[in-house]
C-alpha cells in the first residue's frame, strides 16, 4: 500500500505538511451540538477591523498536536484533555498521541468522546506492547515516525509529561 493510501485509510489524511501525494478526500466530522460553529457573518468586515485597530488572529483550521506520556491518574492528563477540548471548540484540528504511560489512557471515556467528535487519536504501538495492552480500534497505533510526522505537520505542538 503506498504511503498516501495508508495516510487516508488510517488517519483520514496525510500528516505531512505540503504533501501533494495521494488524492485528498473530504471527510465529514460531526461535532457535539454544544460546540459553536463560526459563520462568516460572525466576523467583522476587514474595513471594520482596520477602523477599530483590532487584529483578529483566527485559529480555525489550524492543527494542534498533543503528546501525552502520563496515565489518567496524573494531573497532566486532565490538562491535556482540557487543552484538546478547548482547541476543538475553537475549530482546530487536534492530533493526540499517547506515548509511554499515556497508552493506558487510550480507552478513557473523555478521549473516546473527543475522538468521536473528530479528534485524531494515536498511540505508541511499542508502549502498548510493553504494557501488555492489545491494540484496538479506539486509536491508530504506530511508531515514532508517526509522531515525528505529527510534530512536523501541526502548527503548534505541546507535550504533557
Radius of gyration: 17 Å
**Structural class of the secondary elements?**
alpha/beta
What overall geometry do the principal axes of the alpha carbons give?
globular
| CATH 4th-level superfamily | DsrEFH-like
User: What low-confidence regions span 5 or more consecutive residues with pLDDT below 50?
Assistant: 22-31, 38-42, 48-56
Q: Report the total helices.
A: 6
Provide mean pLDDT, rounded.
79
What is the terminal separation in angstroms?
Answer: 34 Å
Q: What's the structural domain tally?
A: 1
Any idea what the CATH architecture is? 3-Layer(aba) Sandwich
In total, the number of strands is: 5
Could you spell the SSE succession in H and E letters?
HHEHEHEHEHE
Largest sheet: 5 strands, parallel
Q: Which CATH class is shown?
A: Alpha Beta
CATH topology: Hypothetical Protein Ychn, Chain: A
**How much β-strand is present in the residues?**
15-25%
Neighbour order of strands in the largest sheet: 4-3-2-1-5
The share of residues in helices is 25-40%
Task: Give structural notes.
It is a single chain. The chain is an alpha/beta fold. It has a single domain, classed as DsrEFH-like (Hypothetical Protein Ychn, Chain: A, 3-Layer(aba) Sandwich). It contains six helices and five strands; from the N terminus they run H-H-E-H-E-H-E-H-E-H-E. The chain has helices at residues 3-11, 46-52, 75-89, 109-116, 125-130, 144-153; strands at residues 63-68, 93-98, 120-124, 140-142, 156-160.
Amino acid at each position: 500500500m503506498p504511503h498516501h493510501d495508508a495516510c487516508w485509510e488510517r488517519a483520514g489524511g496525510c500528516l505531512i505538511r505540503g504533501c501533494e501525494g495521494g488524492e485528498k478526500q473530504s471527510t465529514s466530522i460531526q461535532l457535539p451540538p454544544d460546540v459553536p460553529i463560526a459563520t462568516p457573518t460572525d466576523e467583522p468586515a476587514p474595513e471594520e477591523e482596520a477602523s477599530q485597530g483590532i487584529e483578529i488572529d483566527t485559529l480555525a483550521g489550524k492543527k494542534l498536536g498533543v503528546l501525552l506520556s502520563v496515565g489518567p491518574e496524573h494531573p497532566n492528563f486532565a490538562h491535556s484533555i482540557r487543552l484538546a477540548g478547548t482547541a476543538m471548540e475553537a475549530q482546530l484540528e487536534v492530533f493526540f498521541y499517547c506515548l509511554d504511560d499515556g497508552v493506558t489512557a487510550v480507552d478513557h471515556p473523555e478521549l473516546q468522546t473527543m475522538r468521536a467528535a473528530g479528534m485524531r487519536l494515536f498511540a505508541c504501538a511499542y508502549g502498548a506492547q510493553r504494557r501488555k495492552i492489545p491494540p484496538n480500534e479506539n486509536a491508530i497505533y504506530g511508531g515514532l515516525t508517526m509522531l515525528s510526522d505529527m510534530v512536523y505537520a501541526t502548527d503548534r505542538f505541546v507535550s504533557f509529561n
